[in-house]
Structures are given as C-alpha cells and as structure tokens.
Amino acid sequence: EKGGYEHFMLKEIHEQPESLANAIRGRLDFNLGSSVLSGMGTSSRDLAEINRVVLLGCGTSLHAGLVGEYAFEDLADLHAEVHQAAEFRYRNPLIGRSDLVVAISQSGETADTLAAVREANQKGAFVMGLCNVVGSTIARETGRGVYLHAGPEISVASTKAFTCQVAVLLMIALKLARGRRYSREQGMHLAKQIDSIPEFVRATIAQNEAIAELARHYADNEHAFFIGRGCMYPVALEGALKLKEISYIHAEGYHAAELKHGPIALLEEGTPVIAIATDIPGKDKTLGNVEECRARGARILGVITEGDEEAAAYMDDVIRVPACDPLVSTIPATVALQLLAYHIARIRGCEIDQPRNLAKSVTVE
Ligand code: M6R
C-alpha cells in the first residue's frame, strides 16, 4: 500500500506532481486568463461585492492560508487576513456579508476550523471550504468550495494537501484578480505558471538523493531555524513545523527580519539556519540576514532559485528550485523542505508516519 516507498510520507511527497495536476486540471481558462471554480457558487456580481478575504485554518492549513494572504493582496488588491481557527471564535470577528471566508482543512473535520465555520455562517459571511476529504463535515457545512483532489493523505505530517491548498488558493486569487486589477495578459501568464506547478515540483523531487545526502549535516542538532521573507515567510513556518513534527528537532520559523530582534541570541557554532532565499522581491535582504547568521557561526542551508550563483555563494549547502513566479515558487520551495524534514527524521530513526502525541485529524478543541 506504500507503493514501494518506506513511508507514506515519502510516497505522498512523490505523489505531488500527480495530485497537483488533479487539483489544477480543468480549472484554468487560458483564453480568459482566469480560473473556473464552479464549486465556489459565485456569480461575477457576488465576486465584485467581496471586500475582504478571511482565511481560517490550523497547523499546515493555517500556513497555506498565510501564503494565500499574499496572493489575495498582491494579485487581487484585496484586503486579506488569516486567523488561527481556534482564535477566530473566541474573539469578536468583525465579519459580514462582504467577506469571503475560506475555511482550509485537509480532513474537513478539524474541530476548531469547524467551529469557526459555524461562527462565520452565523454572521452571514460568504463561507466556502477548501477541503480534501469529499463529504467531510466542513465541506458539507460550508455548502460551497473547492475540493483539493489531492487523494488520501495517510501520513500525519501533511504534504500534498498543503501544496494543493496553495495551488487552489492561487486559482481563487486569480479569479478575484481578474475581476479587479488584473489584465487578461497578466491572467494568462499566471494561469500558465499555475499549470506548470507539477513540472516545477517534479524538478524539485528529482533532487531527492542529493537532499538525503545533505540532510546528514543537519540530523545531529537539537535546534534549527527557518527564515524567509514575503510569501516565503509562511514557507519557513511550514518547513519548521514539518521538521519538529517528524524529527523532534526544536525548529523555529521566523521572518528573516525578526531574527535580530531576539532569536539571533540563540545562534552558536554550527546551529542550522535554513534560509528560503529564492529569487523573489526582498531576496537581497534575506541574503543580508544570512550573512548575519553566518557571522555567528551558523551552518546555512539555502533554498534558492536554479542558476542563482549569487545566492549560492552565501550558503554552505543548497537545494535549487526552478525559476518561476514568486507565489508559485512557494510550492516547490515547500517540497524541498518536506524532503529535508523527511530525510533528517529518517536518519534519526523516527516514527515518521505516526509521530508521538499526534493524530491525523484533531477533532477536539
Ligand atoms: O485536516 P486539517 O487540514 O484541518 O488539519 C490541520 C492540522 O491539524 C494539520 O495540518 C497538522 O498541523 C499536520 N499534522 C501538519 O503536518
């Protein structure tokens, strides 16, 4: 059932080109430079009335929402905010009819996300689900949404659900962008980039052996830092979550600029810093932060864009991802970090598919 792979997690990482193709297939309109997401159940008038996007989720799904926040703001000029779903219900969420609430959940059964959906429904917002499990409670209670089509995810550590969530969020953002400031040409360009995601991911997975090799340098530490800026900041959070979840290494994800406001005090000779420094706006600043870490003796692993020798020169080790649109590149960059976490955990002999204290679906608050 693991299809020849040692763990479900590794199988699911490798399935991503296929699961992403399934998530994307039939949902892009290259002619209009837009996306076709009929499950959203929105007319163009509904879309025009949306003033704000509120994204809800927990854990990895929360991180997908954080990438989505950049997409809605950058592409659609829409005010977007992300709430940890548990928090949403216990504050006074100021939402109403002009808000598009997107509940993100692989399982569709996470108690906190479900409670937040009920609260948003109660307040009359336009609520939709981004679920993988068909017919799950959140999918049913939202009544509208976009299924991920990632296929069953068995490993407790979420991998293919995350990349499909980001791909679907990009398609929703594209649709909203086209009703706002995005031209047909811009839309066509992004649609093509989204369509190439499976290929970008395949090229990243092709480095599996090399990643397994460099993981040896990072498997003996008890701490690690992941840093990134812009849309790579949530990728840093996701990379850190993956590592701590399956390898039990204490990993922290930080905005690269935040390091010198405290955490840099923890760096010692050999402390691993994983810098997501692909070629996006702000990369130079991230490289500056990498230099600060290096000066404190940190060992730096960079996730960089293929062919970027300038960035490579700052790093002790590199994983290269294909050159692509910045928002799109969050997907291959995350795949690189999934493989890194997997190989580190494997070297440490961890119970990868079933980490201690964790359940696949968290159905209690
Ligand atoms: O099923 P959901 O997407 O609602 O689950 C949310 C989190 O429990 C989940 O992403 C969790 O953080 C994973 N173990 C992360 O790998």
From TrEMBL:
<protein>
    <recommendedName>
        <fullName>Glutamine--fructose-6-phosphate aminotransferase [isomerizing]</fullName>
        <ecNumber>2.6.1.16</ecNumber>
    </recommendedName>
</protein>
<keyword id="KW-0032">Aminotransferase</keyword>
<dbReference type="GO" id="GO:0006047">
    <property type="term" value="P:UDP-N-acetylglucosamine metabolic process"/>
</dbReference>
<keyword id="KW-0677">Repeat</keyword>
<dbReference type="GO" id="GO:0097367">
    <property type="term" value="F:carbohydrate derivative binding"/>
</dbReference>
<dbReference type="GO" id="GO:0006002">
    <property type="term" value="P:fructose 6-phosphate metabolic process"/>
</dbReference>
<dbReference type="GO" id="GO:0046349">
    <property type="term" value="P:amino sugar biosynthetic process"/>
</dbReference>
<comment type="function">
    <text>Catalyzes the first step in hexosamine metabolism, converting fructose-6P into glucosamine-6P using glutamine as a nitrogen source.</text>
</comment>
<keyword id="KW-0963">Cytoplasm</keyword>
<keyword id="KW-0808">Transferase</keyword>
<comment type="subunit">
    <text>Homodimer.</text>
</comment>
<dbReference type="GO" id="GO:0004360">
    <property type="term" value="F:glutamine-fructose-6-phosphate transaminase (isomerizing) activity"/>
</dbReference>
<dbReference type="GO" id="GO:0005829">
    <property type="term" value="C:cytosol"/>
</dbReference>
<feature type="active site" description="For Fru-6P isomerization activity">
    <location>
        <position position="360"/>
    </location>
</feature>
<feature type="domain" description="SIS">
    <location>
        <begin position="214"/>
        <end position="355"/>
    </location>
</feature>
<keyword id="KW-0315">Glutamine amidotransferase</keyword>
<dbReference type="GO" id="GO:0006487">
    <property type="term" value="P:protein N-linked glycosylation"/>
</dbReference>
<feature type="domain" description="SIS">
    <location>
        <begin position="43"/>
        <end position="182"/>
    </location>
</feature>
<dbReference type="GO" id="GO:0005975">
    <property type="term" value="P:carbohydrate metabolic process"/>
</dbReference>
